[in-house]
């Protein structure tokens, strides 16, 4: 009897739960939502207090197994609309005048800002709307584009990964690993702006290729997005280099090389491996292809309580030699190896010094995240705040050195001496 | 009621205490602490935990020396009818008020962070309905459900914290002393009542199998709570840095929205249900305690029947404040300040009176704790 009773009760409960499952007010159906993957922000041309908003809406049905046959198969992977609004919160309703589905930011992955707008003082106010909006997460990325974001999004047509949400995800992961663009998430942007000490580095990209001749014979590492020349049949968009923000306003851009140096100097954000060319010390005609990897933590020796504060930075790296065009046989000759090592050390240290000097003279503070290391030297927040990193940084005496450890000399150590062969 | 006759063992008791107090790491308590202590906020739970030893030790000394008497009965016995009524009334006031504002805050968290379109009253009513149902089931049930859900809840919190630890930077914890050592000690002492729930736990003594279990349970749960709240507060700073963490209303919920596990992004859908269950248990215990005190005040023997009525009252009072995120934050911060002296003075008073009455004397020979 009691068993039956409890079973009855159980069934009642289960059927009641079924009713709940059908959802209530916050129920959403994937089919009825328009998933915005990227928001573009531009200054409106006419009204200073309004922004031009571009939505890149992803079609979740493309690329899924459910695609086959029917209307969904022929739908394009994305939809782009641009319009003027007061902010990107109210714009959700405005977009509905064009888009039939409900706009949601649940899958928003990236905020795209045009360089012009990022240099505007008012930009920060709009960006901070993101902290209020419930659906926007702090792990989304920021990308600065050279041109208007609306034209950037239209020109951005990846061929092999057409689903925009996947595309941006992969792009940023790869870019960070290769050290071409910084990771630039919104969380870090807010943190650095609020801490008011360092510079924030955002990824930089463009769909416009610079055709002027100055870019043509340039060393590719000295380029930023848009200056790299390439042919073939591919997407016109480039992502390279970084945009620097000081106190929430964009001030300058860094080239690929500077971005990579910045990564190497950063105490926590380490690139996985950088492929680059360094001059051959044995023959000036040639370049040696190398793979540079960080070899443990960047070491700091900070002396900030002195009259002129000083910082000694040691960057340990492992360099693997990948090509050897001059044919010098340094794999077996220890003297030559030492010479090679010293040449690498001098070269990289010089590059570091140039960049640090630039940050001290031009920017007034650094994008390397050193203020976090400096904070450890202080016991109380009040001491740290009165030290005023941003004000003190240009006067700090910085000594940087590089500790090179040679890695492998490629798969095959020895190299054919071309001169001997041609003899 | 029949169900409440059963007693609970040590593990259920510890689980219940941990869920009751430890869940505070996931509401706006951290925000209240960070406001004054900045990046040294994580030191506060340590200091509060250390200072809490005094009132807890005093209460243990007194309450466990009476056989099968909870805090309510002890107060009655020590202070007599009139003053006893007054003290219990104050305790009930605090517990009921805390129940109202805490449930209002939790409703607000659910509303602002997860279900933004669902009417507040619906969320609130559902939350209280679950708690009232749980409370009415009786104490034994509450105990066993706490023990049953505890591992899942703690594992989910731990995963969230570990993931964010690896995404954050430990250097944010520096300058290590935050606003300065004296400021830290002063402000933490003023926030003592964030562990004030421990007073109310003494009301539950008659439901615990033995006083020895109770004694050990209280200390074990205090240690675990201090450890977990400290760890959580540290990791919020490690994740967001102090300037940003001070601006957040609900750090835990921002945290679970930010962490990623490999390719998995929107992780909060995994953590949210566990937090929700923890909140249900927490308020069920609150509800039960408030009802017990209420029952003593107005001589209602089967106080469990008062729970649905009290729950309804909570919903209506709790939905009064407008823009709850900010207004209740203020009220809550003030309640913590106001109840701190009570948390210290009451146990001291009870101990002094007990000593004066000579009730502690004959125990001294018996147990040497």
From TrEMBL, chain A:
It is a lipid-anchor. One of its GO terms (cellular component) is membrane. GO terms for biological process: spore germination. Its main location: membrane. Transmembrane segments: none annotated. It is found in: Membrane. Belongs to the GerABKC lipoprotein family. This is Ger(X)C family spore germination protein. It comes from Ornithinibacillus caprae.
Automatic annotation (TrEMBL), chain B:
Keywords: Germination, Membrane, Transmembrane, Transmembrane helix, Transport. Coiled coil: none annotated. One of its GO terms (cellular component) is membrane. The chain crosses the membrane at residues 42-66, 78-101, 113-135, 147-168, 219-239, 270-291, 303-321, 333-354. One of its GO terms (biological process) is spore germination. Belongs to the amino acid-polyamine-organocation (APC) superfamily. Spore germination protein (SGP) (TC 2.A.3.9) family. This is Endospore germination permease. It comes from Ornithinibacillus caprae.
């Amino acid at each position: 009897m009691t068993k039956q009773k409890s079973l009855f009760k159980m069934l009642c409960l289960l059927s009641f739960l079924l009713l709940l499952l059908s959802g209530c007010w916050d129920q959403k159906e994937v089919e009825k939502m328009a998933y915005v993957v990227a928001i573009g922000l531009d200054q409106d041309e006419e009204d200073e207090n309004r922004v031009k908003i571009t939505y890149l809406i992803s079609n979740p049905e493309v690329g899924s197994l459910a695609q086959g046959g029917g209307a969904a198969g022929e739908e394009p992977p994305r939809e782009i609309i641009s319009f003027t609004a007061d902010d990107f919160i109210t714009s959700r309703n405005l977009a509905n005048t064009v888009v039939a589905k409900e706009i949601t930011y649940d899958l928003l992955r990236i905020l795209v800002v045009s360089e012009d707008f990022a240099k505007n003082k008012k930009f920060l106010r709009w960006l901070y709307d993101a902290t209020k909006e419930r659906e926007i997460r702090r792990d989304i990325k920021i990308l600065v584009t050279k041109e208007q974001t609306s034209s950037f999004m239209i020109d951005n047509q990846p061929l092999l990964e057409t689903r925009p949400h996947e595309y941006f995800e992969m792009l940023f992961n790869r870019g960070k690993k290769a050290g071409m663009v910084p990771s630039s998430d919104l969380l870090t942007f807010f943190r650095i702006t609020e801490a008011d000490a360092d510079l924030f580095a955002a990824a930089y990209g463009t769909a416009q290729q610079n055709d002027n001749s100055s870019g043509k014979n340039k060393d590719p590492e000295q380029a930023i997005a848009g200056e790299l020349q390439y042919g073939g049949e591919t997407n016109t968009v480039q992502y390279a280099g970084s945009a620097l923000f000081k106190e929430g306003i964009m001030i300058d851009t860094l080239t690929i090389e500077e971005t990579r140096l910045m990564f190497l100097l950063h105490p926590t954000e380490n690139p996985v491996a950088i492929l680059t060319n360094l001059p051959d010390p044995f023959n000036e005609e040639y370049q040696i292809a190398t793979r540079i990897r960080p070899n443990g933590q960047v070491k700091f020796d900070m002396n900030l309580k002195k009259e002129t504060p000083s910082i000694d930075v040691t960057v340990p790296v492992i360099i693997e030699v990948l090509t050897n065009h001059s044919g010098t046989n340094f794999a077996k000759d220890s003297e030559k190896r030492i010479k090679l090592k010293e040449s690498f050390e001098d070269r990289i240290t010089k590059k570091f010094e140039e960049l640090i000097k630039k940050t001290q003279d031009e920017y007034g503070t650094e994008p390397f995240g050193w203020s976090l290391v400096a904070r450890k030297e202080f016991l109380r927040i009040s001491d740290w705040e009165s030290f005023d990193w941003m004000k003190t940084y240009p006067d700090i005496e910085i000594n940087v050195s590089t500790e090179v450890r040679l890695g492998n000399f490629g798969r095959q150590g020895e190299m054919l001496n071309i001169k001997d062969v041609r003899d | 009621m029949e169900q409440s006759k059963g007693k609970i063992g040590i593990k259920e008791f510890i689980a219940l205490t941990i869920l009751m107090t430890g869940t505070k790491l996931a509401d706006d308590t951290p925000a209240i602490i960070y406001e004054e202590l900045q990046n040294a906020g994580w030191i506060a739970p340590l200091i509060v935990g250390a200072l809490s030893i005094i009132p807890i030790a005093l209460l243990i000394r007194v309450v466990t020396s009476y056989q099968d008497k909870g805090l309510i009965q002890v107060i009655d016995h020590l202070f007599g009818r009139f003053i006893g009524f007054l003290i219990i009334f104050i305790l009930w006031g605090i517990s009921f008020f805390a129940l109202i504002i805490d449930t209002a805050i939790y409703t607000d968290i659910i509303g602002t962070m997860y279900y933004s379109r669902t009417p507040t009253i619906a969320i609130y009513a559902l939350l209280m309905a679950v708690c009232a149902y749980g409370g009415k089931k009786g104490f034994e049930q509450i105990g066993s459900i706490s023990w049953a859900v505890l591992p899942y809840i703690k594992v989910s919190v731990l995963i969230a914290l570990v993931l964010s630890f690896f995404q954050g930077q430990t250097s944010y914890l520096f300058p290590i002393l935050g606003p300065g050592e004296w400021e830290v000690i002063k402000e933490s002492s003023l926030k003592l009542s964030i562990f004030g729930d421990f007073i109310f736990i003494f009301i539950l003594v008659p439901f615990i199998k033995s006083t020895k279990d109770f004694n050990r349970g209280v200390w074990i749960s205090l240690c675990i709570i201090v450890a977990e709240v400290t760890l959580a507060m540290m990791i919020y700073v490690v994740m967001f840095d102090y300037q940003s963490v001070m601006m957040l209303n609900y750090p835990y919920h921002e945290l679970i929205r930010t962490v990623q596990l490999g390719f998995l992004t929107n992780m909060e859908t995994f953590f949210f249900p566990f937090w929700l269950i923890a909140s249900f248990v927490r308020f069920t215990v609150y509800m039960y305690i408030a009802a017990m005190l209420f029952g003593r005040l107005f001589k209602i023997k089967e106080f469990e029947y008062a729970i649905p009525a009290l729950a309804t009252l909570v919903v209506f009072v709790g939905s009064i404040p407008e823009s709850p995120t900010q207004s209740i934050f203020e009220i809550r911060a003030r309640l913590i300040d106001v109840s701190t002296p009570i948390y210290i003075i009451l146990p001291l008073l009870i101990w002094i009176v007990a000593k004066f009455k000579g009730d502690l004397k004959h125990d001294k020979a018996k147990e040497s704790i």
